[in-house]
Prior knowledge:
The protein is α+β, with helices and mostly antiparallel strands. It has a domain at 4-8 and 20-72 and 433-696: Rossmann fold (3-Layer(aba) Sandwich), CATH 3.40.50.1820. 50% of the residues are buried.
Amino acid sequence: MSSLASACLVAGLITASAAGTAMAAETPADPYAWLEDVTGEKSLDWVKQQNAKSEGRLAQSPAFQKLEASLREVLDSDAKIPGVQKIGDYYYNFWKDKQHERGLWRRTTLAEYRKASPTWETVLDLDALNKAEGENWVWHGADCLRPDYSRCLVALSRGGADADVTREFDLASKTWIKDGFFRPESKGGLNWIDRDTVFVYTDFGNGSMTTSGYPRVAKLWRRGTPMASASVVYEGKPDDMYIAAMHDDTPGYERNLVSRTLAFYNNELYLRGDDGSLTRIDAPNSAEKGLHKQWLTLELRDAWTVGGKTYAAGSLLVTTLDDYLAGKRDFQVLFAPTATTSLAGSTWTKNHLVLNVLDDVKSRLSVLTPGDGGWKKSDFTGAPSFGTVAVGAVDADDSDALWMTVTDYLTPTTLAIAEIGKQPEVLKTMPAFFDASGKVIEQHFATSKDGTRVPYFVVRAKEVKLDGSNPTLLYGYGGFEISLTPSYSGGMGRAWLEQGGVYVVANIRGGGEYGPRWHQAALKQNRHKAYEDMAAVARDLVSRKITSARHLGVQGGSNGGLLTGNMLTQYPELFGAVVVQVPLLDMKRYSHLLAGASWMAEYGNPDTADWDFIKTFSPYHLFDPAKTYPPVLFTTSTRDDRVHPGHARKMAAKMIAAGKDVTYYENIEGGHGGAANNAQAAHMQALAYSFLWEQLR
Length: 697
């Protein structure tokens, strides 16, 4: 996910242009502060000039056009696996291809889905909707009301921004509900309680959003009344990150909840009584709290001593909610980490809990079953011994069936339906989009500056010459406890591997590959350890003679853009080219721009003494015009309302003024993902790969 965001799935408060204009005034000493005015005429003129230069150099050749068409073919392929979600009796999928750039929300039956070419029924055509309404809507998902699922709350974003609107949709007639629930454009959401009542958390006006730009107030809103008259359920503090309320509609266990997120991996969870009273689930704020039927699970991020016992960080504990609320603190440990293992996820079915564990970044599944004598552990029947495995419940209330996907860098993804205790039935296999014959996947370990063992994957031709001449692309993220596991990318395979490149993914600290300890090892004043890890992987690739600095490129986006910005400024001698996508770069200003304040638990607060260490990993301030830097490509999106495009703009402008080799491209749409449709995605990818090939051959 890889972006700051995997946890930040919510959308933006202040329009980007307003935020940029207001904040630019705070930094008069910065000669490039004007580029924070996102939609200002002067800023956009600069963007257009840079885009034209980049397009002129990279995008005009027949080779570029061939590459772009090849990438678009992968993205538009009808043979991709359509992931589905069971809603009532149907299985729903959101699908984009060449004919449907913004996409179709469609449905089918399980019997049809099992077929090689299922028949789909269109529920909502976004391209047709955009044409009818003169909009540029991008799909943000739907929440449909149990038990008949006739009404849905559909979220739509303009141009792919995090900020979106919510509209009520009739699933039976496939039409919008006139005068139905409607939430105006903002970061936030609606959540069903019943057919005539919703929770709403959004921009209610002055003072109703946090300093991070997310909802500060959650309310209960009844049909037929104005949203302004909705009653307050919970009001957080301005420096909280995100306030939300939601309804658990599990039959027999219906309950209302309020979530107060103070920062990433720091939250409080409350049960809301029918009288409006709130009961806090009194567990550590750093623990991830899960409710399923009668069970309460706690996934610990810090060691916890309770009930006379100490439980290790990274453990998964379970008890019954009623016992916990009654004050009992007796847990069963469902998972405890080791030096090489961490919990990647857990999935409930009707009668079981399936654990997905990473062991040195390799997936391992097991099944836990509650009974009178406690919880019993068993192997997951048919779980493969290779690749990245992911599972998700088909219908956790009524069945023990799971969707199971299996993938790696060279093996096209497969989708199976797996009934616990039975061999999985493969339903779909993604086509091979590139020739993987003669190629291998290896895992190596580099030694970081402080002696830490850092894993990384290498994908290369089996017969590659180890003479240091191979064009090699190193990818990393290293933040927010996000793990990078092997996955199949037809685009990367076509644009890089098939052309003779070596692809490398680094599992550096800051990520979640070894659980909370791996993440926490690179927080705030220890951020440098993530960058030391990445540099260690780069050096290890050279020592193995897989490549050399002249032929080694590095790429990352969002927090990974901060990573590659630091590779550029702190380790320029290690790389022949750097790709910096939707990045954070000005770490003095980041907490004042859009959602930046929500990341201070990760990086620190630059308006305090924290700046003493933050400035050591702020690429915008580390740049030295007297130094030599490798060629760099910056990409971002005007519609990114999560990481402000001013970061990339200002850094590029600063380097261009110093005469450095800089390529810049800003997509007008796309939000934090960088592209709003397949055409834009193919173009952005083609620019990055063309730049890398230009520099690294």
